[in-house]
Amino acid sequence: MTTAPGIEDTILQRLGSGAALQETHDHIPTLWVKRNHVHGLLHHLKEEIDQPYKMLYDLSAIDERMRTHRDGQPPSDFTVVYHLLSFDRNEYLRIKVALDESQLSLPTVTDIWPTANWYEREVWDMFGIVFD
Length: 132
Prior knowledge:
Blueprint: H1 7-15, E1 19-22, E2 30-33, H2 35-47, E3 55-63, E4 78-86, E5 91-99, E6 105-106, H3 116-127, E7 130-131
């Protein structure tokens, strides 16, 4: 899939220091977003932009506690990863949130994508991350 120019810049401009771009080998636009910005950003990407990201393609987590090579990524014990798809743009977008082991919670996105319930329950079951 191709990358529509500007979505990364739009997010970085909107969130300022609340987001950072990550270079990836698969060329999917990938941004690290601070936990207090993630719900608002995901709502914005689905409901408020031209050619929105209507599909939550996947929501998963990564146990980072044993990882040693983080190459510019924020420190985290766990990472929650949201994979979005825009049919209009023909584009994927990856949003990551770094979590400390002492604060394993994020706001739920079931009000944005009701199907997130299944993914959030799976992440809770596998990693103990709570979605409030």
